[in-house]
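Retro notes - structure team

What went well: the batch runner handled both jobs without manual restarts.
What didn't: labels got mixed up in the shared folder, which is why I'm recording both outputs here explicitly, each with its sequence directly above its tokens.

Job 1
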Amino acid sequence: MTEDFIPAARPLIGEEERAAVDSVLASGMLAQGEEVAAFEKEFSQVLLDGRPTVAVNSGTSGLHLGLLAAGVGPGDEVVVPSFTFAATANSVALTGATPVFADIELDHYTMDVHHARSLINERTKGIMPVHLYGHPFDGPSFLSLADEHGIDIYEDAAQAHGASFEGNMVGTFGKFAMFSLYPTKNMTSGEGGMVSSADEDVVRSLRLLRNQGMHKQYENELVGFNARMTDLHAAIGRVQLTKVLAWTKKRQANAEFLSQNLSGVGLPKVAQGAEHVYHQYTIRVPEDRDGLAKALRDEYNIGSGVYYPVPNHRLPSFARQEDLPNTELAAKEVLSLPVHPSLTSQHLERIVTAVNALVEAGS
């Protein structure tokens, strides 16, 4: 009998989420309403130590509107990592500003603060490092850099719900921070994003920008967007929010098992003072990463993912000539194994057996 397929990621949607959606449908209030307001408040309390949040229709919208609310626009530069999903750089470009690509450090795949320093000039409005794969970037070091140069920090926390650094929650370092609620993230609302900020002006601008520039109907204060979250999505998110901390513990336990038992590959590292929430469990495979991924699927029915094989600076949309050696190396070697909370002990043992056997055989 063929063993069941182990996907690289799997959304967890249960009866509670279905019941919450049915309740919204029965209420007749489907657009941005009481569910959205409640979700914003609860997200703030559970994951952000009370920092205000604004719900939007996607993580990308959250980055775009956050940058606009923070005053980023034409003529500005924002330093971003090239080793990330394209939405990070896209959101900067959509404001009319220019993304400037920084290299990463290879221990945690987050932006190299020293390289970022070398890119700052009189046009630099801010820096937008990414808490990649669920590992937080070094918040204090980037805040020190920002203070030194009088610029802002913007957090791309799309993959880092509940992560922290030196006791400070991810999402509390920057001028604003964005969390994605896409289906494969550590928690989901079906689709959506949350933007947090301690700046009242930024929060007010975010609320205007997501709603056609209106605080009151037909009183458009600025040119805005339709980036509202629906109550249907918020209802799912509210239920997921009650589960995400327990799911994180399971992800961390799964990651611990993998790290204790895998051999022959580069294992994820966790910085001192960091809490990694393992959106991805990412190994390094110096020899034939793609061959290993194919063999895992073909021979063992195990999925995996390569995030990200083409750095942003080499995408056709940007096509920059940059010297980013760590970024290029990571793009060739990283492979993310299943770590999601629906894995059983049998699944974890299969993953370890498969990876160790294939690496030993040179696949």
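Job 2
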Amino acid sequence: MSNPHGSFIWYELLTTAPAAATRFYGSLLGWTAAPHGGPGGGPGGGPVPGYSILSHGAQAIGGLMQAPEGVAPVWLGYIGVEDVDAAVAGIQAAGGAVQMPARDIPGVGRIAMVADPGGAPFYVMRGSSDQASGSFDPQAVGHCAWNEYTAADAEAAIGFYAAQFGWTRGQALPMGAAGTYQLMELQGRAFGAIMPRQDAAAPHWTFVFRVARIGPAAQGIWDGGGTILYGPAEVPGGDHVVFGRDPQGALFALIGRPD
């Protein structure tokens, strides 16, 4: 694993309609899908039944699979760690939980699904290859550009993720009565933020994918059967964002230049 400990290295969509979700995100982000281990698939390993690799050009961005019975559609992030078992033990000791015990996937790596003390799920992973992940790239169209956490207790969440993954506080952006939008950094590089929730929603991660232009992308959400929850709205730096749900209900966001 050549990405630093604590990096987001992969993104995965659990969905109730894999074929429809593939078409929706393909139209929005230019992704193509291929069975794991097939042409255009991710690095190494044999096929994982029912798992598709989502790619932008030659770069694998994430995966897509059928959600287990009773699981609502959701995007999940993978955080790269030096030692999966040590990471799981630390997360449990800090009040988190294990949702899928650590296991090895031949040719891929060792992974575990966990939840933070607020209940938000994510994966920890140690890849079997030294190849760096390019799934997160703030400026590359079709890649994840930002990782945003909405917390019931923002200070507690900041403390948890800082202790487990070496994240540090970056710039703090005041949001008035809504609290503080706290940018988070890894090795001096901002990659996301933690903010207080504004409603009764459970703590969760939202992954923000980059598009070339936000206007056509926003229209594409409606045209594809999705729903816009917020935006388009300008953010610092001149980009615009839109938050929405895909046709199956998974929360996601897009960022891009204004028209």
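One thing worth noting from job 2: The two ends are 38 Å apart (CA to CA).
We'll revisit the folder naming next retro.
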